[in-house]
């Protein structure tokens, strides 16, 4: 290239270089970059914790064929839970919920089972919803209200959910109990599904309505 041509290109090269350069003042400092990274990490951990908390509250017993969602903040009572069901408690409030499967060898009707469950309780009141579901309330005679839901599975076995809470806290717990009992679903146990798979939520929901 001739010297004259090179000289003519210098202003253009300088303009392009200036256009690509960023002001030093706009570049984040190391402290700002670190703070942004920490904030992103904290947000990711928080979102992961929320997901884990939700998963922990959604209990699915694939072997017995039922699922239920527990209230936020409640804790599992490991000593009272087993392969047939689970117990969750509201820390310090005296309320708990028990959801268990039981075999029905005697092939009792749902009405007969309700009579057995309600034995010893006071103020029992409830309704049968078809042949396979019962919803009711009672008082255990010790100052506690009891909300109950029973679902009969196609093989005759029974899933029972009982929500017990202090009578004096009825206003606080009544809606919580209703929501929890509404969340109870029954479906075909793992052993009765193709290849032992857990049914999808849609299948589980449909089974609960039968």
Report on the structure:
By secondary structure, the chain is α+β, with helices and mostly antiparallel strands. It has 5 helices and 10 strands, in the order ααβββββαββββαβα. It has helices at residues 3-20, 30-57, 110-118, 170-183, 201-208; strands at residues 58-61, 66-69, 75-76, 85-90, 95-102, 122-128, 133-139, 144-152, 158-166, 185-186. The strands form 2 sheets. A 7-stranded antiparallel beta sheet has the order 3-4-5-9-8-7-6, with helices on both faces. A 3-stranded antiparallel beta sheet has the order 1-2-10. The chain is extended and about 75 Å long. Residues 2-23 and 44-54 have low confidence and may be disordered.
For the structure shown, list the relevant keywords.
single chain; 210 residues; alpha+beta; 3-stranded antiparallel beta sheet; 5 helices; 10 strands; 37% helix; 28% strand; extended; disordered N terminus
Strand content: 25-35%
Structural class: alpha+beta
What is the makeup of the main sheet?
Answer: 7 strands, antiparallel
Overall average pLDDT: 78
Uncertain parts = 2-23, 44-54
Total E-strand runs:
10
Gyration radius, rounded: 30 Å
Helix run count: 5
Give, in order, the helices and strands: HHEEEEEHEEEEHEH
Distance between the termini: 88 Å
Oligomer: single chain
What is the general shape? extended
Q: If strands are numbered along the chain, what order do they take across the biggest sheet?
A: 3-4-5-9-8-7-6
Helix content: 25-40%
Concise structural overview:
The chain has five helices and ten strands, in the order H-H-E-E-E-E-E-H-E-E-E-E-H-E-H.
């Amino acid at each position: 290239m001739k010297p004259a041509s090179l000289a003519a290109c210098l202003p253009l090269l300088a303009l392009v270089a200036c256009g690509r350069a960023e002001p030093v003042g706009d570049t984040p400092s190391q402290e700002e970059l670190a703070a942004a990274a920490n904030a992103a990490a904290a947000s990711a951990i928080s979102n992961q914790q929320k997901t884990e908390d939700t998963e922990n509250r959604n209990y699915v017993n694939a072997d017995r064929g039922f699922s239920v969602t527990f209230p936020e903040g409640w804790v599992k009572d490991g000593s009272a839970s087993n392969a047939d069901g689970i117990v969750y408690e509201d820390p310090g409030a005296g309320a708990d919920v028990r959801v268990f499967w039981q075999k029905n060898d005697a092939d009792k009707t749902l009405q007969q089972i309700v009579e057995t469950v309600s034995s010893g309780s006071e103020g029992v009141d409830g309704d049968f919803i078809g042949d396979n579901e019962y919803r009711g309330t009672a008082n255990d005679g010790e100052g506690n209200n009891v909300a109950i839901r029973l679902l009969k599975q196609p093989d005759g076995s029974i899933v029972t959910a009982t929500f017990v809470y202090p009578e004096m806290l009825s206003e606080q717990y009544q809606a919580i109990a209703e929501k929890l009992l509404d969340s109870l679903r029954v479906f075909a146990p793992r052993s009765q599904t193709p290849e032992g798979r857990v049914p999808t939520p849609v299948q589980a929901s449909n089974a609960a309505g039968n």
